[in-house]
Amino acid sequence: MDPTRLAAAIRPRGPWESIDLGFALARTWFLPLWLCWWVTAAPLALLTLVLLHQRADLWLLLLWGCKPAFEALPLYWLSRALFGERLTVAVAARRLPQALPPRLWPQLLWRRIGVTRSFSMPVTLLEAPRGAARAARLRVLGTGAAGWLTVICVHLETVLWLSALLLLAFLLPEGMPRLDLEATLTDSGSMADWIGGLLMLAAVSVMAPFYVAAGFALYLGQRTRLEAWDLELAFRRARARPGRAGIGQAGRKGASAGRADASWTHPGRSHFGRGRRTVVAVAAALLLAAPLAGPLSPTQALTREEAGVAIDAVLAESDFGGTREAWTWVYVGDTAEPDTDGDAGMALPDGLIQSLASIIKWLLLLAAATGLGLLALRLLPELRAPSRTRRRAARQRPAGTQSRAAGATAMLPLDIPAEVRRLLGAGDARGALALLYRSQIAQLRTAGLDLPDSATEAECLATAASRARPDQVAWLQRLLRLWQGVAYGHRAADPGAMASLLAERAILMQGQPVQGLSADD
Amino acid sequence: MQEPAPDATHAAADAAPKARVAIDTLRRLETPEGIEILLRLAGPVPRAAAFSIDLLIRVGAYLVLLPLAALAGVGLGLLLLALFVLEWLYPVFFELRSGATPGKRAMGLTVVHADGTPVGPAASLLRNLLRAVDFLPVLYGVGLTAMLVDQDFRRLGDLAAGTLVVHREDAGLPPSLPAHRPLAPPAPLGLEAQQAILAFAERSGELSAARRTELAALSGLAAAGDRDPAGALLGIANWISRGKPD
């Protein structure tokens, strides 16, 4: 028995609802149940037919008496199918000795009269109590609906039988012999009697699965109501499925580890930190959102990309983002209601409103005139001021930044070494280095190198390295190291290094002017 | 993360065709507001019982009206009119008035549209006029067959009118938990386990003390040495429903 594979929804139901569940079960599994009924019924019917071929009524009476034996196998099949074990009819037929009640005779003799057969049958077969225990058990579980179920099912059988019989009688073609309905009841052994008997057997066999299943469902319903059988199954299921959605880890060690039954927890995960535990709890909550249908195997886990595609697919559906709300003004006519009671109380004389309005109008005009006057006072000095100089200054400004190379050279002194020495003499090593650096950049630019204003020292060096001569680059490198040390490191520049830089610059400028670079282009 | 959490809707969509749907008599409807309505369908047996009660009531009415036959022509005419009205309009009248004939009400049944709304005049009239078809060839043979075959226990009249006969929801008291000091569960619980524990707490009043203890021990959530496992489970239920105590 596998309680995790319950084929029917078990929950607390009233007796009538339980019977309905039984009918739903029987409809779903009608064919196997019906065949299971015939497994026992057909051989017996054929055997007794040989003995009682004279009397259809006696034959039916005998079969009616043996109905508990016929119903054992459908019940056995049903009790297995409920837990997901679908036997084939052949297999079920081989298990007939197991399926029959341990003591069949009481069922066929004195208990045959009882009206709660389909309900007491599961108790007898599945719990197998005996004697007083059986009576006590039935008393505890019993419900009035069990008797009504039998009564109503007998009537439904009759309805089916009569309907089939009448349908046959009505639909027989003209030329064929009429079916004498009266003879089916009175004339024993006649043709009509046998037809009626066979139809009766068919009706009984059709109702049998429903009757058995309804009794079984009623038994389950009573156990659910009285013993919370569904909760027992749920608890068992939860214990049997470690690691499934939501069953997290215990996260408790030592003495308290015994508190958590291992099967409620994820095996092998008991040493998590608090943060990890939170993550697990969130994961568990996410997994809870997945419905309980089907276990989640690791292969079903989505990768990030797959999940992205899946989410996009969901978002593309019409449920998301398909609607648009637009607001427009629509003229619906004049809805103003003249002379309502509320307005009448608030009404002012017309003359007063007129004068108020004119006062406000003049106030507004006055305010506007004052504002204009103030503006004029504010603007007059500006207008009176000589406009020519300002305009010239504005025209000059862009000229200063017209050309980066020209601008940079224009701001440089003509005799750079002299200026550098002067600055050095004044103790401004920083200014001297900056001047050297600037002049070098200007030279590089003049030589056609593209050095944006934002270029850093390293970028300048890299650009120069690709185009200039190695000794020039080496010189620039030394300059930059000194400059960076002074400018960013606030280290005092070495006077000797400065002097050698100046001397080498003179040699470089003499030997091969930097302008020579442009010859490469 | 112990398992990457797949997108919930996709897991459902993928699992839906493969998963065995538990056989049930529930029909689930979802309103546009996203509220799920559960209809508990009523099968042939309670409906037959309801029909029998209605039949008894009608027979009683005929017996009361029978003395009219003594008035010869007019009386017989009146009797036939009463017969017509009672046979055809008795269910319609009661279904429109309260959703159920007296027999159905006694059995706790009610007639609704397939979308769960109360049955309207058109549907009620249609389903009751088609009783004539369901009655064929005798004693509702066609209707019974249709009910046994149809997934929602509908007879032909119900199929034509788009109605269902369902068990009425009795507006009982909302379920309440027995008060108990909240206890943290020893391990994070799955949804099903949580629901089972809450249901256990709500229904514990109907169970015997021995059975309560047995079930609680079966859950494996109470401490091994706990002398009152049922109490521990009630504590966990209170924890689930109300959270940690302040």
User: How is the biggest beta sheet of chain B arranged?
Assistant: 4 strands, antiparallel
N- and C-termini, Cα separation of chain B:
30 Å
**Could you say which structural class the secondary elements and strand pairing of chain B correspond to?**
alpha+beta
Query: Which stretches of chain A of 5+ consecutive residues score pLDDT under 50?
Result: 243-299, 396-408, 513-521
**How many individual β-strands of chain A?**
0
**Overall strand count of chain B:** 4
- Helical fraction of chain B: 40-55%
Order of helices and strands of chain A: HHHHHHHHHHHHHHHHHHHHHHHH
- Oligomer state equals heterodimer
Which outline of chain A best applies?
Answer: elongated
Radius of gyration of chain B: 26 Å
Helix run count of chain B: 11
* Mean pLDDT over the full residue set of chain B: 83
State which percent range the strand residues of chain A make up: under 5%
Return the domain count of chain B.
2
Structure in a nutshell:
The complex is a heterodimer of chains A (521) and B (246). Chain A has 521 residues and is an all-alpha fold.
Describe this structure in words.
The complex is a heterodimer of chains A (521) and B (246). Chain A has 521 residues and is an all-alpha fold. Chain A has three domains: 15-171 and 178-236, no CATH class; 242-252 and 261-292, no CATH class; 404-520, no CATH class. Chain A has helices at 15-28, 30-51, 56-65, 67-81, 89-94, 96-99, 104-108, 117-127, 132-141, 144-171, 181-186, 191-227, 229-240, 274-289, 304-316, 341-346, 350-384, 387-400, 404-411, 416-425, 429-446, 457-467, 470-487, 495-511. Chain B has 246 residues and is of the alpha+beta class. In chain B, 54% of the residues lie in helices and 9% in strands. Chain B has helices at residues 8-18, 44-65, 72-98, 102-106, 121-129, 131-135, 141-149, 156-161, 191-203, 209-219, 229-242; strands at 26-30, 36-41, 109-113, 163-167. The radius of gyration of chain B is 26 Å and the shape is elongated. In chain B, 34% of the residues are buried. The model of chain B is unreliable at 1-19 (pLDDT under 50). At the A-B interface, helix 1, helix 10, helix 12, helix 13 and helix 14 of A face helix 1, helix 2, helix 7, helix 9 and helix 10 of B.
